[in-house]
Amino acid sequence: MVSFRQDEVDRYRLIHIQQDRTYNDYVKKFLNYSAPLPRMEESVLRDAFVTGLELALQAEVISRHPQTLEECMKKA
Predict the structure, then answer these.
(1) DSSP one-letter string for 8-27
(2) Based on C-alpha coordinates, what's the Rg of the chain?
(3) Are 26 and 52 in contact (CB under 8 A)?
(4) Is residue 39 part of a domain?
(5) Most CB within 10 Å of its CB: which of 38, 43, 74, 76?
(6) CA 41 to CA 4: how far, in whole Å?
(7) How far apart are CA 71 and CA 67, in angstroms?
(8) Mean pLDDT per segment of 10 residues, for the chain of length 76 residues?
(9) In terms of Cα–Cα distance, which of 12, 18, 2, 68 is closest to 36?
(10) Domain region containing 69
(11) What's the rounded Cα separation, in Å, for the pair 22 and 2?
């Protein structure tokens, strides 16, 4: 039987999160999932956030070339 550490489970959930409701719901869910991962690199957080957005919003954010997670959240 394969066993995973909690940080591995948390990271998997964060990387695979998808926007399935409103943008604000997605941000809350993303922040909730990322909270247990304080040492995760900014670039990983930024990429996971953008990847999980609805496609139209994802394209809009990418076109603005955000450098941080905060910029991604403001631009979306």
Answers:
(1) HHHHHHHHT----S-HHHHH
(2) 13
(3) yes
(4) yes
(5) 76
(6) 21
(7) 7
(8) 88 95 96 94 96 96 94 86
(9) 12
(10) 6-75
(11) 35
**Residue 18 region, left (φ>0) first, then alpha (ψ -120 to 50), else beta?**
beta
Residues 6+ positions from 72 with CB-CB distance below 8 Å: 46, 49, 50, 61, 66
Residue recorded with tokens 């719901």 = 25
Counting the structural domains of the chain, the total is 1
pLDDT (0 to 100) of residue 76: 67
C-beta of residue 68 within 8 angstroms of C-beta of residue 46: yes
Contacting residues for 10 by C-beta, under 8 A, at least 6 apart: 33, 36, 37
User: Residue 20: inside a domain, yes or no?
Assistant: yes
pTM listed for this prediction? 0.89
